[in-house]
Amino acid sequence: WYILGTLGAIQFPVVGLAPLKSLEQLGPLGVLFWMQLMLVCDVYKRRQGDNFSEKRYRDFQILLFLGAGFAALLVLFVFLPKGYLGPLSARIRGLF
What's this model's pTM, rounded to 2 decimal places? Predict the structure, then answer.
């Protein structure tokens, strides 16, 4: 639903690419990626069968999430200096 809603929202000129540029709206995208990584781990465990130990499963999860975290940091370090990602809104800054 997140993908369909975001694709529908960016079709309006007023909204534009704001859902993909706003830091406060990227949180749900992070949750979506986290859920997809958990699904990948679960599917991989089921395909390995009964001989896949919990330690190997945990190690696979750690490796996958460390790789995804490194990729996310790399993307942030590339896009933040270029000004592609906007700052937090005044509403969010007012909370802190």
Answer: 0.72
